[in-house]
Amino acid sequence: MLLLPQDRGFIHPHPSEITPRESYLRRRDWLLAGAAMAVGGPAALGSGPAHAQGKGPKLAGARSSVAGAMAMDAPTAYNDATTYNNFYEFGTDKSDPARNAHTLKTRPWTVAIEGEVKKPKTWDIDELLKLAPMEERIYRLRCVEGWSMVIPWVGYSLSELIRQAEPTGNAKFVEFVTLADPKTMPYVGSRVLDWPYVEGLRLDEAMQPLTLLSFGMYGEVLPNQNGAPVRLVVPWKYGFKSAKSIVKIRFVEKQPRTAWVKAAAQEYGFYSNVNPKVDHPRWSQATERRIGEAGGIFAKKRPTLMFNGYEPQVGQLYAGLDLAKNY
Ligand code: MTE
């Protein structure tokens, strides 16, 4: 994340910022769907919002009733969300994951639940898919680099899985370990990060219903470059907390050492809550560019919202915490 010398102090414009006609038309569909909703209620939308589809297998999700889970912003075009990615195991350019992640093997796949739990278990991915009903959640994703997207995810609250595991009284944090397979992930041999990519949350953050275990997006299974077959999505935190291609979830007593904290603790903290008032040491976090928005690089930037707009749901988790120190 802008750690590389060529990136320092320079944000490259991306071709997707010049809104393609397709994406504009889709946005119009979305606005029309919104109008239908206002007139006829959710039923007017049929099975759900009219998203652009890729070519992946379908994975439907029912409209979520979790508070804050259905942002009314226009979803980012499918093409942008699947070709402008951060997934360093497949390269550090935004276009690398879409080009390289076809080598990722998502079956067989297991997710091990370990550590401070009464019921440790290694879940087969197909069993995990059936653990709870799939929901669609439309979340804003704000990357620490200063761009954002709006993505219709499919999955269920991580809390469903945590409840099955029955954490012990010693479990204070949850650590997410992702796949690091040099055979299928070309950059795992590089020294960009200390692999595997590890992320973490406080247990209460992991239990917050908005914290999503995601298996799909845009009504389909996750494309490899977006973190197949299972990833985390924590919408009030910077995008790097949303670990992709998870293989292990560990319940621990001490705050995990995450990959980005190990790489640059002064720049990327453990909390990483979206906060327009706490700048990154090298750039402001007050505004953001919405990928694919009309006007491209000339589009007016949007103000970044406290906790990415999810303050009503999550603000109380941080009562009394100095957010400038605990960035
Ligand atoms: N997970 C893994 N395993 N490796 C990564 O490099 N990048 C993170 C996060 N999860 C990353 C990861 C970052 S920096 C962001 S912004 C989001 O994934 C990007 O998710 P997206 O490509 O689906 O938008």
Provide a descriptive summary of the structure in words.
There is one protein chain. By secondary structure, this protein is α+β, with helices and mostly antiparallel strands. The protein has a single domain (50-318), classed as Sulfite Oxidase, Chain A, domain 2 (Alpha-Beta Complex), CATH 3.90.420. 17% of the residues lie in helices and 20% in strands. Strands 1, 4, 5, 8, 9, 10, 12 and 13 form an eight-stranded mixed sheet that branches. A hairpin with a 5-residue loop joins strand 2 (110-115) and strand 3 (121-124). The chain is globular and about 50 Å long. The chain starts with 20 loop residues before the first helix and ends in a 13-residue tail after the last helix. The model is unreliable at 4-22 and 31-50 (pLDDT under 50). The structure holds ligand MTE. Ligand MTE binds at residues 1, 85-89, 141, 143, 178, 197, 226, 239-240, 242-245.
Topology diagram in text:
Layout: H1 21-40, E1 62-63, H2 78-81, H3 96-100, E2 110-115, E3 121-124, H4 125-128, E4 135-142, E5 147-157, H5 158-165, E6 173-178, E7 198-202, H6 203-207, E8 212-217, E9 220-221, E10 231-233, E11 246-252, H7 259-264, E12 287-290, E13 302-303, H8 311-314
Parallel strand pairs: 1-4, 2-11, 5-12
Antiparallel strand pairs: 2-3, 4-5, 5-8, 6-7, 6-11, 8-9, 8-10, 12-13
Low-confidence stretches: 4-22, 31-50
- In percent, how helical is the residue content? 10-25%
Radius of gyration: 19 Å
Count the beta strands: 13
CATH architecture verdict? Alpha-Beta Complex
Strand content: 15-25%
Number of helices: 8
Largest sheet: 8 strands, mixed
Query: Which structural class do the helices and strands define?
Result: alpha+beta
